[in-house]
Design brief:
about 230 residues, alpha/beta, Spore Coat Polysaccharide Biosynthesis Protein SpsA, Chain A, 9-stranded mixed β-sheet, 8 helices, about 30% helix, globular
C-alpha cells in the first residue's frame, strides 16, 4: 500500500488564491496514493467553509479566533499537523502552486532513503525583484542549494513549500512566537542532528504578486535574530 501524504495549507481571507492556485495544484498531483489536503483558516470563516464543502481532497478546519500571526502562521500549521493522518507531511502556501510531481517525488525519496526523516526540493520564484524590494520584472529563477547546516543557520535555503517530512516527528512543531521564518526555524530543528535528503525535483512555484504578504515585515529582524540564536551550534 502506498503511503498517505497530507498537504497542509494555512490561510486567512484569501479565497480566490486558494481556489485558483493552491487547491487546483494539489488536485492535479500525479501521486497514485491517498492525498489529503488540510486547509486551516486562521480564524472563523463561514464563507470559506461553504466554498470548500465540495472539494474532494480537502479537509477544512479553522481556529476559534484569528491569531493575528498571519495567514501562513504557526498556529494553523500546527493544527494541520495535529489533524494529519498521513505518513508524510508536505506544505503549500495559499498563493503558491505545487508542481504536479512533487508528492510523488516525496514518497519516492523516502522510499529510496528510509533513514531520512526530512527532505527538500527546488522551487521557482516568479520575480525575485519583488522579494528583494527592487521593484519588479525579474525573470523566474530556480533555487536549489546544497545543504550545509552552518550555512543554513545564516540563510534559509528552503521555502515551506519545498519541505517534506515524516509525520510524528518530535521537532516537527512550529514555533508560535515567530510571525515570519517559522519554516526556516522548523527546517533547522529537523536537520540539526541529521542532514536532509536534497531531492533534485521541483516542489513548487513561489509567487510574489499576492496581496497582504508579510515577507520583510515589521518583525523580520527580530524573528531572524531569534531563529539564529535558537539554532546556533
Amino acid at each position: 500500500m502506498l503511503p498517505v501524504v497530507s498537504v497542509i495549507t494555512a490561510t486567512w481571507q484569501r479565497h480566490r488564491l486558494l481556489q485558483n492556485r493552491c487547491i487546483p495544484s494539489v488536485r492535479a498531483q500525479k501521486y497514485p496514493g491517498i492525498i489529503e489536503h488540510l486547509v486551516i483558516s486562521d480564524g472563523p470563516d463561514s464563507d470559506l467553509r461553504r466554498l470548500l464543502a465540495g472539494e474532494p481532497l480537502v479537509r477544512y478546519d479553522e481556529l476559534r479566533e484569528h491569531s493575528d500571526v498571519s495567514h501562513w502562521g504557526a498556529l494553523p500549521r500546527r493544527r494541520g499537523c495535529d489533524l494529519a493522518s498521513a505518513d508524510f507531511i508536505a506544505y503549500l502556501d495559499d498563493d503558491n502552486i505545487m508542481h504536479p510531481q512533487w508528492l510523488k517525488s516525496i514518497a519516492w525519496g523516502f522510499e529510496q532513503r528510509p533513514e531520512a526523516s526530512i527532505l527538500y526540493g527546488a522551487f521557482i520564484v516568479d520575480d525575485t525583484a519583488r522579494i528583494d524590494q527592487r521593484g519588479k520584472g525579474d525573470l523566474p529563477q530556480l533555487y536549489f542549494w546544497p545543504y550545509d547546516h552552518h550555512t543554513v543557520a545564516q540563510n534559509n535555503i528552503a521555502d515551506i513549500g519545498c519541505i517534506g517530512h515524516r509525520a510524528g516527528l518530535t521537532e516537527g512543531r512550529f514555533d508560535e512566537s515567530l510571525r515570519e521564518m517559522g519554516d526556516w526555524d522548523l527546517f533547522l530543528r529537523l536537520t540539526r542532528e541529521r542532514p536532509p535528503l536534497a531531492l533534485p525535483a521541483i516542489a513548487c512555484y513561489y509567487t510574489t504578486d499576492a496581496p497582504n504578504r508579510i515577507t520583510n515585515g515589521p518583525t523580520f529582524e527580530a524573528d531572524r535574530a531569534a531563529v539564529m540564536a535558537k539554532n546556533r551550534r
